[in-house]
Amino acid sequence: MNYDFNMLSNMSIEEVDQRMSELDIEVRDMKSKDDVEDAIEYRDELNRRKEELKDIAERERDAKAITNGTASGSRVIERSKSYGVKHMTSETNNPINEEMRSFQKFLTVGARNMSEMEMRALNLSGAASALPTDIYNKLITGGDYSDLLSRATVINQENAGKLYIPIASNTAATWRTENAAGAEATPTLTNLELGGYELMRLMQMSAASASMTTSEFERLMLELLAAEVVETLEDAFISGDGSGKPTGLDSLSWTTDTNQILTANASTAITAADIAEAASLLPQKYARNSIVIVNADMLYNMSQFVGTSEYAYSMADGATSFLGKPIVVSEHMADDTVYIVDPKQLYVRFAMPIQVEPDKSAGFTSASIYLRALTVVDAAWNPAACVRVGLGA
What we know:
Elements: H1 13-28, H2 33-68, E1 75-80, E2 84-90, H3 95-109, H4 116-121, E3 124-125, E4 128-130, H5 133-141, E5 153-156, E6 163-168, E7 189-194, E8 197-206, H6 207-210, H7 214-239, E9 260-262, H8 272-281, H9 284-287, E10 291-294, H10 296-303, E11 321-322, E12 325-329, E13 338-341, E14 346-359, E15 368-381, E16 386-390
Parallel strand pairs: 5-14, 9-16, 10-12
Antiparallel strand pairs: 1-2, 3-4, 4-14, 6-7, 8-15, 10-13, 11-12, 13-16, 14-15
Helix pairs in contact: 1-2, 5-7
């Protein structure tokens, strides 16, 4: 028998129950094995649709409960591979979900209207709340939200002092003859100093957005913070001048033929040979993990590179790598500039985690909430892990 599976998405829960009752009667009269198997498959889809409708109704009740400040426990959605939402179960003791719920309620109704259990789930500092670890980890490690931060070495050390990363000029070991004495090569130790700069951004969130269910609210916070805070940090990794912000690649010291390759003059375009020569300047221990950073304009120029008989890289890869090194596009890069770096040698230190504080009074007439995201952060590149390609004078 033929069943219209496309109509399932338009059925209400009452229509699903009615169709299931009708199907039970139809199956009793079936004599063909194939018809019975089709009916069972259709009934399974009806069951999935029924569970989905139950989940939607529960999420709507949860959203209203959060808005009204009556939510008593947290719930988590379990996903099904074939149909999206599988079912929703109570997870009051889930610390990550509890933290998210409490954070959402803190921004929506304020700390004074929260229960003692919800307050314990928050990491409060003064009037602000530190981001839930689930959101923070996705911001730091997710390639969807950053180009370099997700590849960098991130250090979370919450204190007021400075942090020093030791860098050795000579890290090679030496072979020794058994029981033979001898002097070891003594490397010159330098360090990267990481202090802290304040990074703040104001954001506006509507009351409707604040009353979303937790999963949608988490996505909203990720998008806001990625666009407002992380993007500003990404800019500093490239163009930061060290004045009130981290020192970026543009402000490092560059020496031609040592860690920099320049074209003949300002009117001579960068070629594939220039980038390849610059890559050869990078020590192998950094070259293994290196990436090529360009902006969209330079990426277009690179896509036009042609050698005597072969392209400078495989066009089958969609111009995503050069000499086997991934190409990362950053719009904070200047035109006609290429950096080849080991991103793990970008050290980022958060002296204070990203904290968010709400203010309803500022947006009272527009029924919105103003959020202030604040963090103390610094970043530094290991210069030995960076080379540059640019135009000559």
